[in-house]
Amino acid sequence: MASTGGAPRLELVWPKKEEFLLSAKDATGKPVWVPKTHPAASEVRLVNFGDTCGHVGPHSGRARDNLVFTGDSLDVLRILAEHPEFRRHYRSQVKCVYIDPPFNTGQAFKHYDDWMEHSTWLSFMRDRLLLIKELLTADGTVWVHLDDTEQHRMRCLLDEVFGSQNFIATVVWQKIHARNNSAQHFSADHDFILVYGRDARQWRPNRVARTAKSDADFWNPDDDPRGRWRRSDLTASKPYTDGHYQVVGPHGDVFSPRQGRPWGTSQENFETLRNDNRLWWGKTGRTFPFRKRFESELGGLVPNTVWLHEEVGNNREAKGEIAAVFGRQDSFSTPKPERLIERVLHIASNAGDLVLDCFGGSGTTAAVAHKMGRRWAISEIVPATVRDFIEPRLRMVVGGSDQGGVSAALRWAGGGGFRSVQVASSSYDVMSDGMVLLSAGATNGIFAQAMAAQLDFDFDVAGIPFCGRRGRMRLAVLDGVVGPEEVRTFATALGEDERVTIVAKVVLPGAEEMLRSLSKGSRIRKAPRDVLADGSRKARRRETAAP
Ligand SMILES: C[S@@+](CC[C@H](N)C(=O)[O-])C[C@H]1O[C@@H](n2cnc3c(N)ncnc32)[C@H](O)[C@@H]1O
User: Is 429 helix (H, G, I), strand (E, B) or coil?
Assistant: First the structure.
């Protein structure tokens, strides 16, 4: 039990929960724990846009294009939530997040290692889920794909981040259909997909297509011109005051609802159904009545929680799809079948909605989202995986030559495009004594961009001497010293009602007093110290916002 000042709440605790897990340089990096005040706990990285493929929008709207990020999911999520160029297109705007993170199975896959301490894995996931929550629309959902290794701990974590009231469902996916008879105890045939809403009350699933199996009991013994129908019970399962009456069949037989239950419809409506030939009294016309429900009048099916491999594919199908794309069998170790992702995206999004997957793998989510007309962004930490799987696969999707997976069902013929984006390295170097310095790469203009991103300013060098703007607040960045003289220059350049945030590496005595006297509400931030402190305050606000 933990208390947040008020009533104690149920909570999963784990070692180092209060610390911050640094993002690894690659998926096989060893975990490093630092206090939450560490720069990396709040740093917003810069990005470098790379190649484009197919049709993309204008340069000015590049953050709105479909995006393949090479970088750690934590950095990418923070860029999407906080970097001024991205956040206006991403914050509260992602309709569906599907993630298939490392399951923590203890295996070393060909393209990434899958082992962390349970507590490390929980911190790793917690920090990413907190950011995912900020990206989701009010009626958005997150789908977390796992197996039995961590799914029970993840349920607790998702309750903590999203609130238990926002739990929607646990989908069981039949990933294997041939029993593994050499298993020590059980053949584990399924994975789990945990579904949570940003606000479950606001989310409505799209219905799924009817199947031959679900429609097997439709018939048309009376040759009704409206087509096939199925019988539906006319009695109510709950008390219904208007449901207590007797009805007379076509041959004068009198019927009361069975076992003392009322009819589920009023007598007036019963007669309307009779007049419209919507009642079935059996082939003889003398049996207890049922309502006729026409196949043509029924919508799709409400999604269920057991997804069988015949409906959405299995692991073998996924491997086959990858083999078909890349022409070799031994390619990516843990792809998911396109039909499975299509089911997720169909239920949770519509054409034009934004879809995100920050554990890209072979790029299945992006490939399927693209074919389904969704906008999308994915990230992957291992550059070789992006180079060898994600980008070539998506180039084939865009070009229309990927005719595998769901292409045939969706009549996919190519189109659209995407941009590749590289997450830049950190702007900070951390010394062995814990002192934080600006890295060499963070100087020479990049410093100004990094500070703008960090402090929530739109980077804008048009208005010299300023380099950023946030409403009436301007940003000035000095890659060196600020003294009273520089302060005067900036204060004089301000427009009416404008204020300035000045960032400098060294602040001389008298500078702050001068600024206070010339421009009320303006301020000086010393980099990196004050900038980092601002960032950690923001990160703390994020955590306390969790339910
Ligand atoms: C289970 S696979 C995803 C498979 C994917 N759903 C597909 O259909 O191909 C998990 C992926 O997450 C990547 N990964 C691991 N840690 C990551 C991190 N911190 N940031 C981004 N990607 C990461 C791994 O390299 C791996 O490619």
Answer: strand
Q: In the sheet where 229-232 sits, what is the strand order?
A: 229-232, 290-294, 279-280
Question: Does residue 80 contact residue 87 with C-beta atoms inside 8 Å?
Answer: yes
Alpha carbons 506 and 526: distance in angstroms, whole number: 7
- Each residue of 102-143: pLDDT tens digit? 988 777 676 666 677 888 999 999 999 999 999 999 999 999
pLDDT given for residue 459 in this prediction: 87
CA of 124, closest atom in ligand 1: 19
- Which pTM was predicted? 0.82
Residue nearest to atom 2 of ligand 1 (CA): 361
For 313-335, what is the mean pLDDT?
88
Question: Exposed (0-12), middle (13-18) or buried (19+): which is 327, by Cβ within 10 Å?
Answer: exposed
Probe ligand 1: pick from 380, 397, 422, max atoms within 8 Å of CB? 380
Burial class, 129, CB count within 10 angstroms (exposed 0-12 / middle 13-18 / buried 19+): buried
Atom of ligand 1 nearest to the CA of 72: 20
Residue with tokens 């039909």: 339
pLDDT tens, position by position, 160-203: 999 999 999 999 999 999 999 999 999 999 999 999 999 999 99
